[in-house]
UniProtKB/TrEMBL annotation, chain B:
This is Molybdenum cofactor biosynthesis protein MoaE. It comes from Terrimesophilobacter mesophilus. The lineage of its organism: Bacteria, Bacillati, Actinomycetota, Actinomycetes, Micrococcales. Pfam families: MoaE (PF02391). InterPro entries: MoaE_sf, Mopterin_biosynth_MoaE. One of its GO terms (biological process) is Mo-molybdopterin cofactor biosynthetic process. It comes from the Bacteria.
């Protein structure tokens, strides 16, 4: 008997490198609350996947609409990539 | 997977062995008296531990972002730059990154190449898993 607080939004989440190790998959669909932000996505991911994911989201970034982002206040939209800290070069 | 901007900047992500002369040729010009080429090479140690090999992974957008990186450095310095990053399994001694800049004089070329390498490392979504000689492995940077 959950209260109707909105329909929620389905978000396609892609995981890379250590994030894929933490999630044990490379892509999945998550249901987030309407108006979900990167900050609330981080909380959900850490709850689901634990310490390795916590280290990924605390030191990494996200790709939203083709742009690398770190601002927790940004809205998630319908697609987001979880990016561990970069280690090129 | 070749990206070239309007200024014909070379920016490539490849799983093939890097042709280190390609970045040098890409930045060379009759007015340039200095060409600086940096090779990032897989070394056999990291923070006191012995490294066996590395695996590099790139985001599907990495080549576009590498091209943006080259373009921004070129616009800021007014110089021609180029970069090729290799991904996949690399052994000790393999070149993982070749970056180049050219200028009329060496100081500007050294500075631009340094700026380019720093920006590639901080902004291009590439990840590196290192395999130690004792069989363990870990993602770098976590």
């Amino acid at each position: 008997m959950a209260a109707e607080t909105g329909t929620g939004v389905i978000v396609a989440v892609r995981y890379f490198a250590a994030a894929a190790d933490a999630a044990q998959c490379e892509e999945e669909q998550l249901v987030l609350d309407d108006g979900a932000t990167l900050g609330s996505l981080k909380v959900l991911l850490v709850e689901r996947y634990g310490d390795l994911m916590r280290r990924v989201v605390e030191s990494g970034s996200f790709l939203l609409n083709g742009v690398v982002c770190k601002d927790d206040a940004l809205p998630v939209g319908d697609r987001v990539d979880v990016l561990p800290p970069f280690a090129g070069g | 997977m070749h990206s070239r901007t309007a200024q014909d900047l070379l920016a490539i992500i490849t799983s093939d062995e890097i042709d280190v002369r390609a970045v040098q040729k890409a930045v060379g010009a009759p007015h340039s008296g200095a060409v600086v080429v940096f090779h990032g090479v897989v070394r056999n140690h990291d923070e006191g531990q012995d490294i066996q090999s590395l695996d590099y992974r790139a985001h599907p957008d990495a080549e576009r972002i590498l091209a943006e990186c080259c373009r921004s450095v070129s616009e800021e310095t007014g110089l021609t730059v180029a970069a090729i990053h290799r991904i996949g399994h690399l052994e000790i001694g393999d070149v993982a990154l070749a970056a180049a800049a050219s200028a009329a004089h060496r100081r500007e070329a050294f500075d631009a190449c340094e700026l380019l390498v720093e920006r590639i490392k901080s902004t291009v979504p590439i990840w590196k898993r290192q395999y130690f000689t004792d069989g363990r492995s870990e993602w770098v940077g976590l």
